[in-house]
Amino acid sequence: MKRFLTIYLDSYRGLSRPAWMLALVIFINRSGAMVLPFLGIYMTQALHFSMKEAGTVLSCFGLGAVTGSWLGGWLTDKVGHFKVQTTSLLLSVPMFCILPFFKTVETLAVGIFILSVITDSFRPANSVSVAYYAKPENITRAFSLNRMAINLGFSIGPALGGLLALISYDWLFYGNAIGAIVAGALFFFYFRNRKGNENVLKKESNVAEKEISPYKDKQFIWFNILTALYAICFFQLLSTLPLFYKEIHKLTEADIGMLLAYSGIVVFALEMLLVHLAERKMTSAQVIIMGTLLCGLSFAMLVLPGKFVLLYVSMFVLCISEILVMPFVATVTVQRSGASNRGAYMGFGALAYAVAHIVSPYCGTRLASAHGFDTLWLVTGGITILTAVGFYVVMKKME
Q1: Are residues 263 and 315 in contact, defined by beta-carbon separation less than 8 angstroms?
Q2: Confidence of residue 200 (pLDDT cuts 50, 70, 90)
């Protein structure tokens, strides 16, 4: 037990103070993140959209994410990560406040698209900030710390959102607005004149690859396609999985919120430890491949009989998958980039997740509607096996 505690504490040592403050900002922002996990349920229950209509609106969120990820990466290289993050956080506030007034498929789709452009421009800029403020030897753990903060916030946001939804779905949007404005104010006042480790990163950049555009880096393009396939499977968590809980297992919004909160707690408790151990024992390729296979296993488990125990075990396996894949994907992206094009690389990397936000709900809701949830889960498991094989081939070439 003493050895375990020592290893656990070691996983947090050596991280810079700005890295911790970035984590605090993202924690506050994600603690108010109540809209997306309940958006599908809100549309089908409160607005009486069909499952296909809800999937279409969620795909508009993905379209906005694609646009925002590209725009955020481009703007980061042009005006800097600080300005992009501050603007994104503050502009999202009025959008969250007006969304409850959009009641039709068309108006809500447009509103969600605009909101997603604003919020997802934050992602590549934030990733550049993590690399900029982290100590070079701790970049993977700095990304893990940021993600740990995201998931701790995600454990609070859906749980609170599930309770607020019982009162009024409108409060989900207002709660998101409050979280964004508090996070934006803290970020602005702490980071406005703060310097990072860019000079060190410049020295460590690979000179041969520093000026390569990510859109011409063929190996990275394939790596990004595989990341998108993984994310398409993983993001069933935010689209079809809550609908599955509601329609098949008859869970209430509060029950669904607690289950999603559980996922955030698992990642918060285990991510830094598992990443710390994985860095010491395995290569990035091995970690990413294992995490991809666990994603498929978590969804394939849902075809088995059972209710609460099965749902929580499946969610636990999905959390381990997330822990093993996402921080190492971010690290590979940083290591592939140079100081002059890091925003473009991080923006292109964010596009993988943005595309997944389009494809995942659109295809997932239609496949579940036409052939049932069991078919969806088995297809998802099959895709992750093919994706893991692809990662093996591509990352072997990238080495």
Answers
A1: yes
A2: very low
pLDDT digits (tens, 9 = 90+) for 282-318: 999 999 999 999 999 999 999 998 888 999 999 999 9
Whole-model pTM? 0.72
- The full DSSP string for 161-204 is HHHHHHH-THHHHHHHHHHHHHHHHHHHHHHTT---SHHHHHHH
d(CA 92, CA 68): 12
Poorest-pLDDT segment among 102-106, 116-120, 203-207, 283-287: 203-207
Helices (H), ranges, the chain: 2-10, 17-31, 35-41, 51-79, 81-98, 105-120, 122-133, 139-167, 170-191, 198-204, 218-234, 240-247, 253-281, 284-300, 308-336, 342-371, 373-398
- Half-sphere exposure (Cβ direction) of 281: Cα atoms closer than 13 Å: 8
What is the spatial distance between Cα 67 and Cα 178, in angstroms, rounded to a whole number?
24
Residue written as token pair 């694609």:
66
